Request: fold
Amino acid sequence: MFCFQCEQTAKNEGCTKQGVCGKTDDVAELQDLLIYAVKGLSLIAHEGRKAGIQEEAVNRFTSEAHFSTLTNVNFDRERFFRFINECVQLRDALKEKVKAKVKAKGGKVDFDHDAANFTPAETVEGMIEQGRKVGVLIPKDLNEDIRSLRELLTYGLKGIAAYADHARILGKSNPEVDTFMHKALAATLDDNLGADEYVGLVMECGQVNYKTMELLDAANTGAYGDPVPTKVPLGVKKGKAIIISGHDLLDLEQLLQQTEGKGIDIYTHGEMLPTHGYPKLKEKYSHFYGHFGTAWQNQKKEFDNIPAAILMTTNCIQRPAKTYQDRIFTTGLVGFPDMPHIPGTGKGKDFTPVIEKALELPGFPADEEKGHVMVGFGHKTVLSLADKVVGAVKNKDIRHFFLVGGCDGAKPGRNYYTEFVSKLPKDCVILTLACGKFRFFDMDLGDIGGIPRLLDVGQCNDAYSAIRIATALADAFNCGVNDLPLSMILSWYEQKACAILLTLLSLGIRDIRLGPSLPAFITPNILNVLVEKFNIMPISTPDEDLKAILG
Ligand code: SF4
Reply:
């Protein structure tokens, strides 16, 4: 295996024997084969569109399959075996339709790339061997900068796939997003493209990701209302409980519906925290209680012997410890071998096994007070304060804004973000999002004239909200985003962060500080391009960075 798609990759070079995330060699090879097959399917879908054929089943599958290979989503080899077979069936059926349509118009189309033609092995072991021949390092003699750009594009597309999948689950899709996914995935197989073409596609990937996050924002707020400031308890209440992790709002709603009146409290975990701010979730369900734990990488410690059931809805699962493996469930695209899985997509899921497990377990023995945090500062709420914020900047009550957000992870270097926020002068406001906030989310930072100094904008996809806030501020001050008193201090871990970073770059945002380390898949030449064009830089120390920004 060879995988270097995430920040914790071994030696910051690549995982070669087993993933640091726990991904086994065989699952890595199956994922490589699935990505190869999806690229083959995309080649045909891209040609199909030119001939007037586009199929929702293909669009949906492309997002689902690509999302399933994102870090910490699915570790189940049987699931990838089924995905690869499904992909090839879709591919071959579409190929026939496209060929027939083109022929009917008097033309001819050949799909001679192996990705569009290979026959999958009949066994998992056979597919693993096929995967070894199509991985990241194949072909061996490929120019390393081209490899780097192809992988950057592939990982950005994984981020888009995740957000597009969430939006689709809530009934929203955008043909422009599906069209780009197929075009760009097909382009990664094209040996005629050079670095300039790939740089163009990478920037387009950032623009399309912005549209995808906008689509998801519309899907979330359309279904559950615009988030409003909400106080969320961090302790526990005596009684039976289910902890729901991940990002899927429809799963959360269905769980809340199915547990109503059953004497079970529902707690969020990880990236589910901001869901407490959605009016149609928080106001409707009195048993939607609080938030449990911190970021994904602490789950083994925090779930240890937990007297509650756990439901993992999207990415962020780790190999469970024995002390809770009998009470953890997966759903959606998440999978782990031998872990009970709640089947289905979107509406109509039956969470009875999770509910029965929660009722069987003793629940929390006593109330435990651990304070609270505030969530719900999406673009609607923050922009409703715009006049107040602009006034505070003009009066010099607010000196500077910092967007400190992104992913959390296990590396010790991530303490930087805790230290950075704790050292910020009291006339600075911090916007945050995604699970990187768990490094400082419970700090009491007070307010500036009634404006909270720490504003939780939401999940990682709510980077859309943060961008809306930044552009509205720039409009209010009649300047560009780069001219605002705003600095972006970002942390990355997996591929959704790659997509968001590409969005920021495609919007021309400069001077981003990125940590805790730079991606292993970016070659020195590609990094130079990013530095020259966008002045992107690695984080250094909180003191040095603060001095450089604030003087
Ligand atoms: S996802 Fe990350 S940790 Fe897992 S195998 Fe790939 S690079 Fe390694």
